[in-house]
Amino acid sequence: MANKSVDHKHFPWSHVIGFVMSIALTFLAVWLGLYTDLALNTVIILVFGLAFIQAGIQLFMFMHVTEGENGIWQVGKMLSAAFIALVIVIGTVWVMNGMH
Amino acid sequence: MAHVNNDASPDTPLEYQSEIGRLNIFGFWIFLGAEMALFATIFAAYFALVDSTGGGPLPSEVFDINGTMTMTLLLLTSSFTCGLAIHEMRRNNVKSMIVWLIITLLFGLGFLYMEVNEFIHLVNEGANLGTNAFWSSFFVLTGTHGLHVTLGIGWMTLIIIQVLKRGLTPDTAKKVFISSLYWHFLDFVWIFVFTGVYLLGLVE
């Protein structure tokens, strides 16, 4: 099988690093949202940016989306699903709140 | 089809050794893509109705950042311990795998306990499913996620029982692996609930 370079004998570094980064990003988002005087739009963009990084940590460091012989298709499926999700959410907000 | 593929190298993790295992895992990724679309529609409804708070308390009045942070850290830690369970499974360490899975379930139950308490608190504050459009969409979104966590706990419990009965085979390893993908996905969705609902609800 291709792409079977899974490191399953040693210390689970990718999980530990992903976990620490997720906690740091969560606290950073709370700090940005509640303890700074940034404009609301800036806060929205920044905290969602951090959320997408955290989502990427789940996919790549915890779920190992690239592994297995179908790895490339799994990544493709997640990208297409993310595209659909963004179109649904941003499209809805745009039509319902932005257009009067 | 379900038999172990002889040309699979001995280094191949158990769950990828059979053709059916590989197909099931790939199929589950497609299911997760559909789940993302499902949650996107509920998020879309929530963000469209986020200002329709007439007749009920404002989210900034009733959300509690400490409780939400505790729930977030519980679910994040459970996702981490679930990853450790798979790590142990690939070292053929069934006992450690089951211990980490049980720890994962305990964190999941802790999350669920806090969420139920939060809902009770919100209802006491005058915010329920029928209060207004904002609270309807809030409860539909968090409730759908909470239902997924509940299902995940039940599913993983059954799979632990099956591993205890049958041992770790390509078939049971595949089931453990797929339920672990599902569990990570619960945290994946929660990241956006935490950010979009609770954090931004407290900012405004």
Structure explained in plain terms:
The complex is a heterodimer of chains A (100) and B (204). Chain A has helices at 13-34, 40-62, 71-98. Chain A has 100 residues and is an all-alpha fold. Chain B is built from 6 helices and no strands. Classes of the chains: A mainly alpha (100), B mainly alpha (204). At the A-B interface, helix 1, helix 2 and helix 3 of A face helix 1, helix 3 and helix 6 of B.
Give short descriptive properties of this protein.
heterodimer; A: 100 residues; mainly alpha; 0% strand; flat; B: 204 residues; 6 helices
Instruction: Give the overall shape of chain B.
Output: elongated
Q: Give the H and E element order of chain B.
A: HHHHHH
Summed over residues and divided by their number, the pLDDT of chain B gives a mean of: 94
- The percent range for strand residues of chain A is under 5%
Instruction: Encode the helix/strand succession of chain A as letters.
Output: HHH
Helix content of chain A: over 70%
Biggest interface reads: A-B, 50 and 55 residues
Outline the secondary-structure elements.
The complex is a heterodimer of chains A (100) and B (204).
Chain A: H1 13-34, H2 40-62, H3 71-98
Helix pairs in contact in A: 1-2
Chain B: H1 19-48, H2 59-62, H3 65-90, H4 94-124, H5 133-166, H6 170-203
In short:
In chain A, 73% of the residues lie in helices and 0% in strands. Chain A has 100 residues and is mainly alpha-helical.
